Here is the input.
Amino acid sequence: MLPQVDLENDGLVPDFEEVVEPSKAHKLYIDKNRCVGFVDELEAMKQAIFLMLSIERYDHIIYSWNNFVELKDLFGMPTSYVASEVPRRIRECLLQDDRINEVDSFVVTTHKNKVHVQYTAHTIFGDITGEKEVIYA
Here is the structure.
């Protein structure tokens, strides 16, 4: 098929339509080890963020190396390094999903051998506040 040209607007005429796929997913009940029913939009995003931050990148051959988080190599590192690196890695991990526009509002607190990070993910469905705790020693 040859492209159509619109001479008045000086450009090509699109002969296709973009379709946004639904974000429907199976509902996970983590505490009960069950998968029952479906969720969509904001609830599906919460679940996707939980999974992206729970699976270590490069550890499982069934998952793409383009997704998930890299935290394992922080074990044994100094507290100041871990506290500055975890927010960057969370942001990098979550922005791989095209439904997430921005990740910000990081609040980092450190305990004996833990770094606790709170953040806000701005998605196309709304804002999600979440938290992640990383044990590094």
Summary: Helices lie at 41-54, 79-94.
